[in-house]
Amino acid sequence: MQAEDVRTLRQSAVPTAVVGVLCGVVAGLTSGEKGVIGAALALAVVTVFFMISSVVLNRAAKRSPQAMMIAALSSFFVKIVLLAVLVGIFRNTTLFDGRAFGLSAIACVLAWTGSQVLWMAKSKILYVEPVPSSLPQRGL
After folding, report:
1. How many structural domains does the chain have?
2. Does residue 111 lie within any of the structural domains?
3. Roughly what angle, to the nearest 10 degrees, separates helices 33-61 and 98-122?
4. 121 located within any domain
5. Residues 111, 15: contact at Cβ < 8 Å?
6. Where would you tag: which of 29, 37, 57, 78 has the fewest CB atoms within 10 A of its CB?
7. What is the pTM of this model?
8. Residue 23 to residues 44, 93, 135: CA-CA distances in angstroms?
9. Residue 68's domain spans which residues?
């Protein structure tokens, strides 16, 4: 993984971790120990899922834009299936508070996505390939 990729992940992971800790504190005050466990599990699931997507997309982007789109759709599908499996496994669990897990997961997803939007808005990424200067340009 390149330094730019690590910086991008860190710019989203740090605010998400802060939100996850705050959710854990609130869940601990409202639901006790099971709330803290639910919030911590939600933070872990959201962070791992988004990091997997970032790694897959960064690797696919090095190949081609078409590979990037296929990778994005595939990773989205796999994450949805994995989330459905996790929800099915922990449907009737008493290990953690399900409400704290759900609300914390929503807050962490919003934090990760919001930080990604802010990063993209502030960065100056070319979205059009510049024309090489050695090729003659056509006039209209």
Report:
1. 1
2. yes
3. 40
4. no
5. yes
6. 29
7. 0.78
8. 13, 20, 55
9. 9-116
| Cα separation, 51 vs 45, whole angstroms | 10
Output the DSSP codes for 53-96.
Answer: HHHHHHHHHTT-HHHHHHHHHHHHHHHHHHHHHHHHHTTT-SSS
Does 24 reside within a domain? yes
In angstroms, the CA 125 to CA 69 distance is 18
123 inside domain: no
Identity of residue 65: P
Residues across the chain: 140
Q: What is the pLDDT along the chain (140 residues), one digit of tens a residue?
A: 566 667 777 888 999 999 999 999 999 999 999 999 999 999 999 999 988 888 888 888 888 878 888 888 888 899 889 888 988 888 888 889 989 999 999 999 999 999 988 887 887 766 666 666 665 556 55
Residue reference for tokens 């078409």: 66
Report how far residue 97's alpha carbon sits from residue 94's, in angstroms, rounded to the nearest whole number.
Answer: 7
**Whole-angstrom distance, CA of residue 107 vs CA of residue 2:** 28
Whether the CB-CB separation of 31 and 65 falls below 8 Å is answered with: no
